[in-house]
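A common beginner's mistake is to predict each chain separately and then try to dock the pieces by hand. The better habit, illustrated here, is to supply every component at once so that their relative placement is modeled jointly.
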Amino acid sequence: MIVTSEHLSKWYGQVSGLNDVSVVVPDGITGLLGPNGAGKSTFMKLITGQLRPSKGQVRVLGEPIWDNPVLYQRIGFCPEQDAFYDRMTGREWVTALAGLHGFDERAAADAAARAIEKVELTDAADRKIGSYSKGMRQRIKLAQAIAHEPELLILDEPLSGMDPLMRRRTVKQIKEWARAGTSVLVSSHILHEIEAMTSNIVLINNGRLVAEGDVHQIRDLIDEHPHTVSIRTSQTHAVARELLADEGVISVRFEPDGLVVETMRPDAFYARVTDLAAGGRFGPINEITSPDDNLQAVFRYLVKA
Amino acid sequence: MTTRPALPAPPTFATGAVRVFGLSLGEMLWSRRTVFLMLVTGVPVFVALVFRIVQSTGVAPLRVNSAPVDGGAIFGMMIWVFFLRFIVPVLGVFYGTALLADEVEDRTITYLFTRPIRRGAVLMGKYLAYLVSTSLVVLPSVVLVYFLLVPLGQVARTFTAFAADLGLLALGLAAYGALFALVGAALKRPLVSGLVFVFGWEQIALIVPGYVKRFTVAHYVQGLVPHAMPSDGVAAVLQSVLRDNPPALVCILALAGVVAVSLWLGVRAVESREYVLDQ
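With all components supplied together, the output reads:
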């Protein structure tokens, strides 16, 4: 078991962030799913020892995490926030953080180089982080999390801001890390992101555990609701024409820097967009995002049921 | 499944602090705050330069109540009034309270607090980075002011006092920095509290007769000022009001005590406090 929590609650003053969550997260890949504001971030902060439980307890890799810094030697954490030391290069930053795990200078530099290679950023490693695109910043965050080759990777919205191709490669990479023996707990508000990595999920909403286990039942529910996807591209009309040919697409709305598409067949749609990006016929497709309205709709349905 | 490579032992408290120091120094040195404070510490250099130029034109020396004031005395005044009473406390407040606050505000603290080092080591490493970077800002300015103001013929005679000035400034930076590192680690609005302490409490306590001034850092810092001030005029009045010298050894021990106790309490505060980041 990588994470266990018993009656875990966290209050911020009078506001409840997490309420009586008891969960056992097994080895392998587990997705933590919930809309924004559901309590995912609070749960992530509790299991990474950034917050102390108000009530209940949480154990990570069998040990309490709060005030137990030695445990971080076995954990890699990729936080959600887009925050960096922008004046440093990617290589300097990952090397410095690897150094905090006890590596000497040379070993830290080697560990950083390996991690940067794994996230395919070697070419940009000596550029300042301030000049990186959103997707590159996500990848350098992943590099700092894996540099010390941890047993457990905790990834908070790791695919956010990546272009479709890099998303596909990162999902593949995460699955490879899991196959190599690293357990991964990954959070997202997009079911299809999680589904691409694992069928084992933990669902949180309104600070409470809604469900845990196999993704397929939830997936059936989400397929009954239209799924909204934003695509950032310069060739809006050509891409829209191409996507409207897909029978699952029910509407397309033009935005200043892209499109917002509603589809009833998200799986096929994501695959189609990735193929379009890979083909390159319509110029670069820089980013696809999915607002959490999709998941909110499912949760509303679940609560109503 | 592949075999996981053996990891090195987690860093000790001291090693962790040194690593955080290495990570933080560059960021601190090239921050906008440091650039601004370099401009502030450039003011006395500019004043000294103007004095030197005026002096070289053969104008009669500056007098206070008919007593001539030479470059050495002006240097002493600048050390006391400008550096010790203004720049050092201000640096202590702005850097000390920001040691962790900046990381929290920039949301980069997560990267440091999810490593196998004690949170206290993060505070210590950042404090060391503060000491080095503020010394690199202040001390060169003092050296320039000294050589601009003090005639070359007086250098040999005054150099010991000058070296003591540099040590005193470093000690002042250490004491104020440690105190405000504690304030930054323990309080939610550390900058306001720091400014109230320096520009409110210390100013009042120093002029109130009695023992209250012992609860200021400035009292012990000023007690170490080695300069003989002009014997009459405004400076002498200032001196008589503000200086109530405890012995040098008492001052040094008191300042060392402020550093040690503040850092110890700061480490305890940072290890027990939760830092909630805005999303």
